[in-house]
Amino acid sequence: MKKTKIYLAFVLAVIFAGCSSDDNSAAAEKPVVINFEVSVSAGNGLRVIADNKSTGASGFEAYWQFTEGGEKVLDGPGPEYYLYDGPGEYQVTLTIEAPAKTYTDTKNITIDGEAGPDPQAKKALKEAATTFSVGMIVQANRLGGKHDEVISKDFNSITSEYEMKMNIMYPSEGNYNFDAADAIVDFAVSRGMDVHGHALIWHNATPSWVENFSGTDAEFEAMVEDYITTTVTRYKGKVRSWDVVNEAIEDGSNNLRNSVFKQKMGDDFIAKCFQFAKNADPDVLLFYNDYNLTFDSGKQNAMFAIVDDLKSQGLIDGVGAQMHISYNGPSSTQIQSVVDGTVSRDLLMHFSELDIRANPDNDLTTALTDSRAIEQQAKYKEVVEIYNAIPQDSKFALTVWGLRDNESWLLDFWGNPDWPLLYDSAFNTKKAHDGFLEGLE
Ligand code: XIL
């Protein structure tokens, strides 16, 4: 028993001695060459970026001192950043503590505190998109402050999220209310932005007095003509384009939705509404707008039948494909199909209501994961790439349906958490925003 213990102690001593002599010979074979680079950040003239470029030092402790004899800052992976209190001449020292020897290197740096343009700063979407307008929705009560700052930077086209719909602009018979619409149009015009008017006729924003209209069909049609004429005339020269009719096709059957407009004005109510708009402003661009036009080929065909009829009468300028989509579908081929149909008809293509659900299957419960954010980024890139490749004559605008994730209509609509937009709730750009820019490269 005693013999075994002695033997074991001897073996361990040999192993231990072996290890330490190996370490010493490794250090002797691979000498440390200390070296670093230090530069002032272009975005902040008080910040330095220090990058350890030493060789043979891996595994040894290294630390920085950004002032002479100053506080020691451990060297982590990647460059270190240090913020000075004020301008001056400073000494930056890197120290590496190898077992046999301590190495140091010192460099002087001048800090003048003047920040240049930040090379990391992202380009504004509207500047990166040189061949089409980049649109954003607004609400009249969110026109100032940070919304204004962010929207003015990235976007050059404005759409009203809900206040340029009939239930808001024409709430009761004979009484128009253009307060919110005026505020939105003035906001955009004073900033030199385009305004896309949305939407004159939509079954989902029809005021109840219109749904329950008490007069004759002829009186109904005269009322609709007055509404369209009054509205389009009011914004003549300020609104560049209107969605005249929104979502007229019924899901499933692909027939015309049996709206009060169809019931009282007939199957050609769409052409009548386009004609009223055109009479009021012959120069304004007129769009038919609908959803699920990518993957639902039956609906797409029904839409193009309506559009062809309008085109044969010289009444339509473009197609709005809403683009409420998800990170995992529709496919690029499906998206391309509605583009091709629009371009081949010589019409303008509007990707009118882009948002990309990150959580369509409700498998994320609390937060947008990094991996899903990357997938969403890729989808934004794909959509923008497809849009950007459209022949110039058919390019018009790509409108994003909401600024911050927490403001998206989808949260109420689907009732589950989602993060479908370009900005998070703190107004920070997301990976999705990078994806948008990548689609323009
Ligand atoms: C939505 C708005 O985002 C909501 O704020 C409003 O309550 C309802 O309408 N298709 C359209 C848009 O054409 O007008 C809808 O906007 C979203 C679906």
Describe this structure in words.
The chain has 441 residues and is of the alpha/beta class. Helix content is 36%, strand content 22%. It has helices spanning 2-29, 125-128, 145-154, 166-169, 179-190, 208-211, 217-234, 260-265, 269-280, 297-312, 332-344, 370-388, 410-414, 431-438, and strands at residues 36-40, 47-52, 61-65, 72-74, 80-83, 88-97, 102-111, 133-138, 157-160, 194-202, 241-246, 285-290, 318-321, 324-326, 348-357, 395-400. The termini are far apart. It binds (3S,4R)-3-hydroxy-2-oxopiperidin-4-yl beta-D-xylopyranoside. Residues 161-162, 246, 322, 353, 409 line the site of (3S,4R)-3-hydroxy-2-oxopiperidin-4-yl beta-D-xylopyranoside. (3S,4R)-3-hydroxy-2-oxopiperidin-4-yl beta-D-xylopyranoside (XIL) binds at residues 161-162, 246, 322, 353, 409.
Attribute tags:
elongated; disordered N terminus; TIM Barrel; 441 residues; 22% strand; alpha/beta; binds (3S,4R)-3-hydroxy-2-oxopiperidin-4-yl beta-D-xylopyranoside; 8-stranded parallel β-barrel; 14 helices
